[in-house]
């Protein structure tokens, strides 16, 4: 009997060794990294003259709304359906192989939990279609002042200097927009009561747009002065914001160098036999990421927008963009400097050549926070994980992220 047991164990060990030596099928999905924007939220702040200020006082500024919770839950359900047969996702969250990281804001931390409820139905009590009651998943974050990985407003002197230079160009796009939308600035100043004169009316208009778009999403009545022309002007200025702030290489290199380096470095180790990841973040994180790969479509990333980076056993790298939780369609993105099939070594080389790498970000933003940790340990993102979720406001499944 003892001999039979030993023989069985030997056969199992042999089978495991043979299986490990067999190369993976080229089209086998090895890893995914998901970067997600938070769901619908309330306005960031009240305007001086604000018809809905009492409601905002009740809800709280910049808070995730019920609609936002449902958006992220539906996205989690969709991710589960898309990757359920790829042997990447367990039925329950596993702390030994996964970690969730978010930026340190209420709306992103809550968005991460809502997405995870849809992604891991095995942890929840419900029928799988409505919001369930779930066993909580640990979500990690870093203070904004040190979160260079996901928070685009974290301190970076070189970025701020270049951004000020961009705004100051006499005939540049920013100054041109100031002249083009002077009529809107005067109207909004008079109707909202913001103090004037203002040397940066565009920034004030971005704040007005935030309130107006929030009222619209919540189905609230618009003030009489907010007509179709005003809404179009505000939306156009917000659209340009995401073009201006990250379009130039020096701008997106400072903000995305660290995340790109960790993403691609982790994928390289995954191919070498180490072992997905989730980040929860903001529209600015999603926009900067798309700019870094030269695939930004010129439109502000909507609520619950989702970017998925897929790594295949052949070394092929693919980017997928889902910009609606209402529609099932996704967009396969073609990277201009690494056309399909885009293989990881080529992409990593191109990113380094273009300066979108950790060293560039560290040189521009200085040491500290994620940048300092990255330079000390050089630990890539997702080296030991099959699935990584990053919720823009920020989620990741990996201790290496922080």
Automatic annotation (TrEMBL):
Gene3D superfamilies: Phosphoglycerate mutase-like (3.40.50.1240). CDD domains: HP_HAP_like (cd07061). Coiled coil: none annotated. It catalyses: a phosphate monoester + H2O = an alcohol + phosphate. GO terms for molecular function: acid phosphatase activity. Residues 1-20 form the signal peptide. Keywords: Disulfide bond, Glycoprotein, Hydrolase, Signal. Its EC number is 3.1.3.2. It comes from the Eukaryota. Belongs to the histidine acid phosphatase family. PANTHER family: ACID PHOSPHATASE-RELATED, PROSTATIC ACID PHOSPHATASE. This is acid phosphatase. It comes from Macrostomum lignano.
